[in-house]
Amino acid sequence: MSDNKILNAIRGKGKNLEGEMSFFDHLEVLRWHLIRAAVSILVFGGLAFYFFDQIWDTVIMGPKKPDFFTYRMMCKLGQLMHSDGMCITEIPGKIINTEMAGQFSLQINAALIMGITLGFPYLLWEIWSFVKPALLEKERKAAGGFVFYASLLFFLGILFGYFVVAPLSIHFLTNYQISPEIQNTFTIDSYLTSVATLTLVSGVVFQLPIIIFVLATIGIVTAKFMREKRRYAIIIILIIAMLVTPTPDVTTMIVISIPLFGLYEVSISVAGRVEKRKLIKEKEFFNA
């Protein structure tokens, strides 16, 4: 009896050891996926660091210039609408550096942000490559195109954030004064952080259809729930648009609101499609 107990203990240890090795093997695989993703980010970051002069003048400082694309288009739209308030001719506020290594740190941080932005699709692909083997064939088909659609939405959000949210927010914040005696002087870190945050957050917000797809698949969110809460979503979107609009012009607020409304409606459609697929699978299961 004692010999059997010893043999069973050894077998149990062997199974546990096999499970632990399998777990650590998965960690090793994940580590290499993350390493490759980090290398891609560093490569893009290195390129951004090398071409930083062009990136600084045209990309980072773009929203600070009155001849920025967004401001010019708003002025043309204002002329068509006979509204002079939409023409932005000056972005006040002086940008300064207050640290000895401030400008060098700025270049490194900006290059890293550009690396993360450009390397985002490859990061998603590495994550998908790690998760994919653990999914069933049906789950793989259902999640097909994840990297493409997530990357597409991310870059659409980046464009919306950079050409709409960031410039209008910068114009509003640089012109906002509680007293004429207080001069707006901003540090370079504050400016870079504002532009990067507004742009990247918009890219993340545009992932809403992907997030809704996952939540609807799990069963947490339904299309019916989102339709019922649409009025609250509309209020939140209008508040956001009002905060970043440089003038009380309703036209400008609508320009910002429309893409966000569209994003919410697309998310409702995505949730509805997920529910239809679930119903079809349930019918096939009970009819089998």
UniProtKB/TrEMBL annotation:
Which GO terms are recorded in the biological process aspect for this UniProt protein?
intracellular protein transmembrane transport; protein transport by the Tat complex
Give the bilayer topology: Multi-pass membrane protein
Please list the GO terms describing molecular function: proton motive force dependent protein transmembrane transporter activity
Pfam families, per the entry: TatC
**Keyword Transferase on this protein?**
no
The residue stretches assigned to a coiled coil in this entry are none
UniProt KW Ion transport keyword = no
* Transmembrane portions of the chain: 34-52, 106-125, 146-170, 190-220, 232-248
GO CC term, one of those recorded: TAT protein transport complex
Q: Which UniProt keywords apply?
A: Cell membrane, Membrane, Protein transport, Translocation, Transmembrane, Transmembrane helix, Transport
> Where in the cell is the protein located?
Cell membrane; Membrane
Q: What is this protein's function?
A: Part of the twin-arginine translocation (Tat) system that transports large folded proteins containing a characteristic twin-arginine motif in their signal peptide across membranes.
**Stated family:** Belongs to the TatC family.
Description of how the protein assembles with itself and partners:
Forms a complex with TatA.
Q: What name has this protein been given in UniProt?
A: Sec-independent protein translocase protein TatC
What organism does this protein naturally occur in? Mucilaginibacter paludis DSM 18603
